[in-house]
Write a structure and sequence with these properties.
By secondary structure, the chain is an alpha/beta fold. It has a domain of about 130 residues. About 15% of the residues lie in helices and about 35% in strands. It contains four helices and 15 strands. The strands form two sheets. Strands 1, 2, 3, 4, 5, 6, 7, 8, 9, 10, 12, 14 and 15 form a 13-stranded parallel sheet that branches. Strands 11-13 form a two-stranded parallel ribbon. Helix 4 links the parallel strand 14 and strand 15. The longest helix has 15 residues. The protein is elongated. The N and C termini lie far apart (about 50 Å).
């Protein structure tokens, strides 16, 4: 814990003074080890230019892991960042942990628990986000704020996912896809409040309840829903309540 606090303080100081490059040696252990393996160099030998030239990075996570802001600064991973657990531990992603990262995609997978904080993606530029094979997920208010994605895939989440009210606030996405167990037993009211989405695909969803105000406060152009999810009356109520959304049942 003392080391984690020290690292966090270092990264905060670097960012406050506008220093964008953090030595690989000063990054958290899983990130340092993955970069060293990818470049086949010791951390002390890795330059800012070499780090920026990385195309992809896969990080294997064992047990409980907390990454810290600055871990990914200076990386331009056009082919993606892949954070894969061992099916047992949890991964905690604090505010700004991806600050300074540019990535074609981020994949978060094979975790027993995945815990976001508000503004986890602050200061990051990501094109696509995939979350799958995660037993428990906690996304609080503004968990995905600031992201501008072409694709957000939650299709293969397990059932213990919790999206708090306003979890999708300030998220801009062309398409977001949910699977049959992505949300739990019911879609709560105002779940999508604050999202700006081209398409929300709920066609695979299997839930017992669907709040009439689920899309209140959202800017959405299209929603796909399976026709068995709602009664004819509910479908009519939904299209009447949200005339600016094109529903496909």
């Amino acid at each position: 814990m003392r080391i984690l606090v020290a690292l966090s303080a270092l990264f905060a100081a670097n960012m406050a003074f506008g220093i964008t490059f953090v030595s690989v040696c000063d990054r958290s252990t899983p990130v340092r080890q993955a970069v060293e393996e990818e470049l086949q160099l010791q951390c002390s030998e890795i330059t800012e230019a070499q780090l920026a030239d990385l195309d992809r990075l896969q990080i294997s996570l064992t047990g409980d892991v907390q990454l810290v802001p600055g871990d990914f600064s200076g990386m331009k991973l056009s082919s993606g960042l892949f954070l894969f657990g061992d099916e047992h531990g949890f991964l905690n992603l604090p505010r700004g942990v991806f600050s300074g990262l540019e990535a074609g995609e981020i994949e978060l997978a094979h975790l027993s628990n995945l815990i976001f904080e508000a503004n986890t993606f602050e200061g990051a530029k990501v094109d696509e986000l995939y979350i799958y094979s995660v037993d428990g997920l906690l996304a609080p208010e503004k968990a995905f704020a600031g992201l501008k994605l072409t694709n957000f895939n939650l299709e293969y989440l397990n059932s213990n996912a919790r999206f708090d009210l306003n979890a999708f606030v300030e998220l801009t996405v062309d398409k977001i896809t949910f699977g049959d167990d992505s949300i739990g037993n019911a879609i709560p009211g105002k779940l999508f409040s604050g999202i700006n989405a081209g398409l929300v695909d709920l066609s695979a969803l299997k839930v017992e309840g669907f709040a009439a105000d689920a899309f209140d406060g959202a800017t959405i152009r299209r929603v796909f829903l399976h026709n068995s999810l709602l009664t004819d009356t509910q479908q009519t109520e939904l299209t009447t309540r949200y005339p600016n959304i094109l529903f496909a049942f």
